[in-house]
Write a structure and sequence with these properties.
Elements (H helix, E strand, L loop, with lengths): L9 E3 L2 H13 L4 E6 L5 H13 L2 E6 L19 H10 L4 E3 L3 H4 L18 H4 L3 H16 L3 E5 L3 H13 L5 E5 L19 H6 L1 H15 L5 H12 L5 E9 L14 E9 L2 E9 L2
Helix pairs in contact: 6-7, 9-10
Bound molecules: adenosine monophosphate (AMP).
Length: 289
Amino acid sequence: MAENQELKPLVVTSVSEMQRIASELRRAGKRIGLVPTMGALHLGHMSLAVAAKEDADVVIVSDFVNPTQFAPGEDYDKYPRTLDADVTLLQQIEVDYVFAPQPSEMYPDGFNAKVHIGGVTELLEGEFRPTHFDGVATVVLKLFNMTQADVAFFGQKDYQQTLVIRKLVRDLNLPIEIVVCPIIRERDGLALSSRNQYLSSTERQEALVLNKALEKAEELIRSGERDAPVVIDAMRAIIATAPSAVVDYAYIGDPESLVELSRIAGDVVVLLAVRVGKTRLIDNRIIRR
Ligand code: AMP
C-alpha cells in the first residue's frame, strides 16, 4: 500500500476499494478507527478524528450525507457538501483515509434492508423524526462492515444516537468498541453543528438560549432542585426569551435508558431540541451527582 505522507488522507469513493483497503489493514494487524460523519466538518468532528488518531493505528473518516436518515421535507438537498474543504482539514491532522461513497453505491437499485433498533429510538428524536434512527443504524452498520473498524468515535452532541449505536453493537454482537467524545462548543457556548451555518446572524444570537437553558438546569440541580418539571419550566422560560425559538422537547432522563424522570435523584441527562427559525438544533448536558 502506498504510504506516502504527502497523500494523506487518501480519498476513497468506491465501496469495494474501501473493503479491499480494510482487509489489507486487518491482515497487517492494524487497529482501525472510524469516525462516521456527514461532512461539512468543524472542530467537533475534528475532535473525534484527533481522539481516533490517539487510539487507533489507522483512521478512516467517512464523509457521507446519508439520504435514508432524512425524511421527505427535511434538509437533505440543502445539507452542506464540502468534501474538498473537509479533506484539507483532515490533512492537517494526518487522517489516513476519507471514505466518501456515492449514494448510488451505498443504496443501489433493489437495496431493501433496514436495521431497526427498538426501545430507545421511540422517544424524543424518534418522535419528531420517526424514520431517522433506522437510517442511522443501517448506514452505521454498513460503514462498520465496509471499514472493518475496531473502534468508532461518536459525539455526545447526538446523545440519543450514541445510545442507539451502543444498542446496535450490543444487540447484534458487533465486534467494535464505541467511544463517545465530549461536545465541542463555540466560545459563547453554542454547540458546533454543520447546521449552524443555516442561521441568520440574529438567529445565531438567539441560538445561545439552548446552552443557557442547559446551564440553568445544571445550576438548579446543583443547588438542590429535585423536581424535574420545575427545572424544565426554567429552561423553557429561558428559551422563550428568543423570539424565533420553538421547543420541540425539553427533557430530563436517565442517562442510560433515557426514561423520563420527574424526581432527580442520581445522574441525569438534560436534552433539548429547539427550532430557531427554520433550523432545528439539538443539545444536551449530563449532570452527575
Ligand atoms: P454529523 O456529521 O453531524 O452526522 O456528525 C458526525 C459526528 O460528529 C457525530 O458523532 C456527532 O455527534 C459528532 N459531532 C457533531 N457535532 C459535534 C460537536 N459539537 N462536538 C462533538 N461531536 C460532534
